[in-house]
Specification:
InterPro entries: AB_hydrolase_fold. This is Alpha/beta hydrolase. By secondary structure, the chain is an alpha/beta fold. It has a single domain, classed as 3-Layer(aba) Sandwich (Rossmann fold), CATH 3.40.50.1820. 39% of the residues lie in helices and 17% in strands. Strands 1-2-4-3-5-6-7-10 form an eight-stranded mixed β-sheet, sandwiched between helices. A two-stranded antiparallel sheet has the order 8-9. A hairpin with an 8-residue loop joins strand 8 and strand 9. Helix 4 crosses helix 5 and helix 6 runs antiparallel to helix 7. The relative contact order is 0.15.
């Protein structure tokens, strides 16, 4: 079943519900639509499966009912920069569940959508379990991400102004880079500033959030995972900060387990932030965990 859901900002998002009606529901906001051709080839260069969403849906719908949609892709197309806070996003997600007649559900998110899942769990009693990939639920890098997203917005705005001065829509031609050819400090951000400001708004709103104090409020099964090489070092242009996801998760593994989390560090010399989000890596982990904790 597919349905167009009207979100808080008035835009409409396509949402699907796949799998048997008598099964536990998994909310999957990371379900990007499959792409082909040059777009698919570019994603492959970056290690991203062009059929990521479809493979997650297929891989989980054998035993679960999957509530799936591309939340990030939707807000890149329909940015809402001034109000993109955890509270706003949680209301969006609950509205989706309501309009799809889903009362209780588990949640899987990766990166910032994992962070969103944590905040959703703090705002509703409708969640049955929470899976966070690529973002640590304890001592999260909120300040580092605030710096990076603020700088990204500032750089995008500079490029936007420069393009307007040149009247050069051609300045937004997309070059085809291989990941190992990118000079992050000198690359131009050819992106709508409104898109980047959303994430600056998100992390600015979290400036006083203490994820250590909220752990006792979480009483559902919880899994956190990351690739062991999940660390990004940003140059001065983006604030000169290091976002060490794997390091923080490993450092606090025992603390998290004492609070009731299951913690997985995915081994591999290439297990960076992108590699550790791919269906072939993630599905075996979350499928078996969900079966164990929802039966």
């Amino acid at each position: 079943m597919k349905k167009m859901i009207t979100l808080l900002n008035g835009s409409q998002l396509e949402v699907g519900l796949t799998g048997g009606q008598d099964r536990s529901v998994i909310m999957l906001p990371i379900a990007k639509k499959s792409v082909t051709g040059q777009e698919a080839e570019t994603l492959k260069l970056w290690g991203v499966d062009p059929e990521l969403g479809a493979k997650f849906i297929f891989g989980l719908s054998d035993e679960f009912q999957v509530l799936h949609f591309d939340y990030e892709g939707h807000y890149m197309a329909h940015p809402h920069p001034e109000h993109f806070t955890p509270e706003y996003i949680a209301q969006d997600l609950l509205r989706i569940a309501d309009q799809m007649n889903v009362n209780r559900f588990s949640y899987y998110g990766y990166s910032w959508l994992a962070l969103v899942g944590l905040h959703l769990a703090l705002r509703t009693d409708r969640m049955e379990s929470l899976i966070m990939g690529g973002f640590p639920p304890y001592e999260g890098p909120y300040e580092e991400m605030r710096v990076v997203t603020t700088r990204t917005y500032e750089e995008a705005w500079k490029q936007h102004e420069s393009t307007e001065e040149k009247n050069g829509a051609e300045a937004f031609i997309n070059e085809q880079f291989s990941p190992d050819e990118v000079d992050w400090d000198n690359m131009e951000l050819k992106i709508d500033p409104a898109q980047t400001k959303q994430f600056a708004t998100l992390y600015q709103d979290l400036i006083d959030f203490d994820d250590q104090r909220i752990q006792t409020q979480l009483n559902i099964p919880r899994l956190a995972f990351a690739g062991e090489r999940d660390m990004i070092v940003y140059g001065e242009k983006f604030g000169g900060v290091t976002v060490d996801i794997a390091g923080r998760l490993q450092k606090n593994k025992q603390i998290l387990e004492n609070f009731g989390w299951t913690v997985e560090i995915i081994k591999g010399a290439d297990m960076d932030h992108t590699k550790a989000m791919q269906p072939s890596i993630v599905l075996p982990i979350i499928h078996s965990w969900l079966k164990a904790h929802l039966s």
